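I'd like us to work through together how a protein chain folds, taking it slowly. To get us started, please write out a protein record for me. Go ahead whenever you are ready, and we will take it from there:
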Amino acid sequence: MKKRQIILILIGIIFISNASLVFGYWASGVLGSQDIASAYIEIGDWNTSVIEDEEDLVEFLSGEGDPTGDYVLTDDIDLTDNPDNVFEPIEDFSGNFDGNGNTITGFDIIDEETDFTGIFVTNTGTISNLVVEDVNISQYDNNNANNQDEVTYVGVLIGQNEGTVENVQVTSSTIIAENDSSTSWFSDSSLDVFAGGLVGYNGVNGVIKNSYSHADLYMETDLYAGFISTTTSNTYAGGLVGYNEGEISQSYNTGIVSSVVNDTSSSWGSSNANNYAGGIVGYNTSTGNVHDVFATGNITIDSDHSDYVGYVVGYNLGTVSNLFRLNTQTYSPSSATLFNSTTATTISNLQSSTYLTNNLGFDFINIWQEVTNDYPVIQN
């Protein structure tokens, strides 16, 4: 990655050595005040790392950059044919990543070691103006230890978010989250899994706005409780966010959500499971605020325990308003407890800039762009 600082030092040397020439041009009108202002703006970004090619992106995705730094993507980058296109998540990001309206395409994140999976493990910074396309997330966690509690967070973009996600699109992507929780004799264990098409766990300081996901989410959790032992599991699956304590607005999801819990416990063992799934959010806590969003993807939820499902929000304890869904959206099984504080409408309405502006406050002047016979996208 290249720092603009180096370039600007050179510009500064040239500028100083030719000051009289520059100001001479300015005075004569050849160099306008707008040019001077542009130079000033560039100097303001002197410490931003530029990601402009495959080499830069591979370096960043490999975790070699500064997680507290500022980054800007200056071009579309496709890693599909790159032999080094399988990465582990980037840990503890607290900087600023500006996609500048560009797209990163064609790589995999595979994690079999940590409890956080996504392009970013955790985020307390800002990620904005980015398109993520054809990214596959694979997360595997085996909790076979007795008397142990396990927590897993997985999302295409971020495992756990306490920062800001704005103007981000995830398309043509897939999440596969497989988790096992088993105990042997006279012991207990628990497993909580948070998975979302964009973010697994959105914390109380997390803000997600003007973003969407078309990522298909598949979760499968296997439970086994041995002789006189207890296994407890809570799974949270959302098309955008699995578990929400923060704010989500002006966003949507078109991907499918599937969460299955398999229980093979012995007759002498005890297992407890709660399974939550929603088109936008699986579980919205008392501090969570979800508003002006819509979902279209079908939802499948299956376990032998407690299933909670919602077209938009699977289970709600917080604040929700202006929740819209496609009128042909389905969920299964019908025996699941349904949260349905939504407005059902047609596909033509959810693809209409006028309808989305009037009903959900989508900004089609500065942020969103209407697409003929399709859902809106973020402006480049």
